[in-house]
Write a structure and sequence with these properties.
CATH class of the largest domain: Alpha Beta
CATH superfamily of the largest domain: Succinyl-CoA synthetase domains
Number of domains: 3
Strand order of the largest sheet: 1-2-3-4-5-6-8-7
Oligomer: single chain
Largest sheet: 8 strands, mixed
Helix content: 25-40%
Amino acid sequence: MTTSEHTEHVAGGDHQSATGATAAVAGWDALAADGSVVHIRPVRADDEQALDELNHRVSDRTIYLRFFALSRSAADQHTRHLTTADPLDGHVALVAEVDGEVVGVASYEPMRTDEAEMAFLVDDAVHGRGIGTLLLEQLAAVARERGIRHLHADTLAENGPMLRVFMDSGFTEVHRLDSGLVELSMDTAYAARTLDRMAERERAAEERSLKPLLAPHSVAVIGAGREAGGIGHEVLMNLVDGEFTGHLFAVNPHADRIGEIPAYPSIADVPGPVDLAVIAVPSVAVPAVVEACGLAGVSGAVILTSGFSELGADGRQVQRDLLKLARRHSLRLIGPNCLGIVNTAPEIRLDATFANVRPLPGSLALAAQSGAVGIAVLDHASRAGLGISEFVSLGNKVDVSGNDLLLHWWNEPRTDVIGLYLESFGNPRKFGRLARLVGRTKPVLVVKGGRSSGGRRAGASHTAAAATPDTAVDALFAQSGVLRMETLEELVDAARVLSGRPLPRGSRLAIVGNAGGAGVLAADAASALDIEVPEFSAVTAAELTDDTGAVGAGNPVDLGAAATPATLEHAVRVILNSGEADAVLVTYAATRAGDVGETYAAIARAAADSTIPVVVTCLGAPNAEPQVVLGDGSALPVFPFPETAVRALGHAMRYSEWRTRP
């Protein structure tokens, strides 16, 4: 959630930003440091009693640090001022609410044309949860929109917590100590440091907020039927068959057990805490179920049920009401209208989907706005030997969005590559900023659906996706380092090259193998992608010719159809040791005279210590393994055609080049 960009929804949401009058009415949801939801909104006249209660709830020490005196009457007078001030005077006041209770207030009073004085009060009970920081970020955002360039504050030197809020915020500030009083001036503009600090705070809060959803210790499937074929039943069976490591419950008022899993009449009857609820009930029953989950203390829910915003205006209103219900209980939602979620970590083993595909464990994190697309990618990845760390079917994105998952996967240790299938961007500016930050350490691959008018119509009908002009998407991706994939197959291919393998340090490609025609096709594909296929030096060419009997040693290197695994191994070693390539493509055509297994082993030995990417094309062996496994357990991707391999390497080169830019 990001308050500073005026999103009306939690987390880094892909949701539309709301500024000006709309935002002033609705307020903004944000994540506290502990992952709970905080609602920030403008002060209203009817807040007087709540603010008085806050003034009398906090300690004497807090009153003294705020008002520089032990005077609750001064605090009450300030409350009158906050709730009755004329907004035309430029005064702004915001309150923070947790579970419907006012727990903090921030305000500023104009001083000069572009300057104002700010003040804060936060309930003692919520200190340490980052609520003061959230109020500061939002107050600065409102001030900046209204032309205020500098916010000032006088703070007692002994008020360490408030001083830390200012100095850790990332906003550019200067301060001066005078007779025990710190006079502080803060710029409201976003500096690079400001955005970095905000992103890191969001990441930490997002991690805590999403952990019960994506790494639960207990799961309840609400709407799990006794008969096979129903969505709830199949999700429950997937959790059982996938050997989920936590506690598993079914909620069904008409059964005591579903298979071997105990069933209870309602979520309130389930013994012990429930981290994740998977909801598979008719759409009319979903709001009541979400409310019951909130009252039961459930932390997150995946709503599989369809029949919401994709049905039009009435469905959109029901979906908005659903979000409000969840917000009241700090309950995070995935969906509705989605396939479910997967976490392959051995200590979790969560398959809360109704898909037939069980993905391999691995390092690609995947989110898809379409459940069918998610199934297709999971299936193709498994066939290609590419494992998944986590998978999230986003559906209508009522709450958790692609932006939230970017933050979550940024530092997720099992994830090397992030793949997204999106049909809409609700907050493109936020997506671009996050993708740029995440992309410095992990590649972000995106297939954007809805490029055509027909595609946009289809997206609107099945996930209520709002269209974004394709030219704007291209510009957004180029600026943020996102690798745009044309197809799902291309996403999987690029992820195979980028997952767990070194990046190319340039654009020089070496091609070597026993099939001259494959080398020609690879070189032509490289040329079309502006990938260099340089001629080897005389020294390297001579070594290849003398030691391997290569038919052609200039690059591509043609070892001839009779080349043995040992010959191929030596040729690859020569090229890797030459320093004349940034990536190597090994092309192998299987024949009755050769042995695919021995050839794979030879390639593995040669590439074991490589510091540049090595990929393989295996032709004429339909049952060959899709990867060459190295001694350390990592693998080289094997592609069926040289053009496919070159295209995937091209993405890796493009990403590597972007990372080196200042």
